[in-house]
Write a structure and sequence with these properties.
This protein is an alpha+beta fold. Helices cover about 35% and strands about 10% of the residues.
Amino acid sequence: KNAGNTPEERKAAQDAQQAAEKAAQTLGTGPPRFLGLPDQRLDTLPFLDIVRLIEKVVADVRPEIVYTHHSNDLNRDHRIVHDAVLTACRPLPDSSVTLIRCFETLSSTNWTSPNSHSNFIPTDFVDITRHLEEKLAALTHYQAEMRAFPHARSLKAVRALAAWRGATVGRAAVEAFVCARRIERLI
């Protein structure tokens, strides 16, 4: 999130960055990278500028697997990020990226119109049974984002979605994804 123009926007951006850093610590991952883009205003920026920022991170990290928002999220920023990630990770000969997965965001992916061009229909499933409690603990750091049940963005709803996605593939808890691109090498 960008620092913003008002004291409230700067405070919200600082809180969001701290939440992301604490969540990463809880999960035991490396620190997140922040691009300084304005929250809920990506549509005011030139698309190429967003792509170039993501390209720099991809060039530095050289990931094999990339996760991004689903293309049909209700949140416009999520849709722009999706498009920018696919553009930044286009399949050029020297690209390190061999798999791009789109995740669902509670209260964004599920709130879009059912008549939209591309609904979230999972193709990839990752068993998170052993890691569900860690995921929930990480989400507790996002106090500004989380809500009380029965809101879709509640810890109870996250647990229920993991159970539902798991039940569809015979597991206790699963995260579901839509595969945007998979490149496999035959041996």
